[in-house]
Target: rRNA methyltransferase 3, mitochondrial
Amino acid sequence: MDLVYRKVFTKLTTDVFKRGFQIRFYPRWQHRTPRRVYSADEYAEIELQEVIKSKQIEIEKPTKFSFSNREDSKKDHSEDTLNLNSQNKQKKKINRPKQVIKETTTTDMLSTSIDAEGNFIYSKAKNNDPQVSSILTTVKSHKHKKKEGLSLLEGKRMIVEALKANCSLKYLLFSRTKDVECIKKYLPKFGVKILKVPYREMQMWSDLVTTPGIMGIIKLPKVDEYNSPSNSLPLTIICDNIREPGNLGATLRIAAGVGAEKVILTKGCVDLWETKVLRSSMGAHFKLQIHSKMDWPSITKILDSSSHLLIADNHIVTEAEHFGKVNKADELKEIIQSIPLLPYYNLDFSKMNPLVLVIGGETEGISEESFKAAVKYKGVRLNIPLKNDVESLNTGSALSVIAFEILKQFECKTDDFSKLEKLVV
Model:
């Protein structure tokens, strides 16, 4: 007989033999009217099935074994025991309840944006896609954005301006194919990972009330890589403590409109790549050489020693009133008094080459370092006369008045008015 059967039969025989002594106790529980009374053979069969089930042994047909000697018998017996243990382990593994694992599928974003036939190569993302969350979380975090040197652009116009300026586009997210078709000719064929995202997903991540349905993540351009055009206006605009994003964006837009050579932002200004600054500048970030977060010792190293520094002062006030309003020391009062105050149209800007114009924020105004620098660089305080008791203009309006007057004088250096007719279209 198979060793397995032999072992089970021996155990069952012993159990039945022990239970035989308990027959004398049968009258005690007879009055309980059991549902069914099993005989010894039936009960042995039930016990056999329970043992087989508990040990989870697969019953196979017995095979004949021939033992040549006692040593072979011991060897085969040990092998059978090992096989029995291995079968039990395998059976236990099979009968264990399987854990249901939810696999998260992610899209494979390709670096090839346009194939040889001119078709877009992009990946599709579902709602709450982990790749989209990872990308946009990084670019929206101030810490990671600064570390990685990235910026988020929304809208076709902003992305096109960045591509025209040879900025490196890392990711392009869109919801409608027609939006990508508009910028197809500006996209590089390689190096851009394009991902199609559901519109609701983009709306959730957008900083705008209504998302345009297209986002681009660019590598911030380096200042040294920008070369000013040869016909640019010899004008450097210094933004001093402009903390309103809309004012800074308007300032950059005006600077690009007049063709200024460069723009410098002091440390007190708002972040250059803030969303509202980008929206109000309308792509001026990519048309100017912009130095951001600089202090005056660093600014003086950039400026030419022969520069003429102009300060846009919105108020016609006495030096004492100016001093009393900003609560400066007597030393600063003397510095302000030493700087002449003139209307902007009374100066010949064409003879002041190169020019440096300092424009201050509406909240903080002109800093003390700006007034000290004006003394060093032959400074002049400029004023825009106003009517109807209007105290001042905002930063963008004041800059536009002065900057376009400078542009006009540089374009019209001669008194020969016949040449002015050529400028009229």
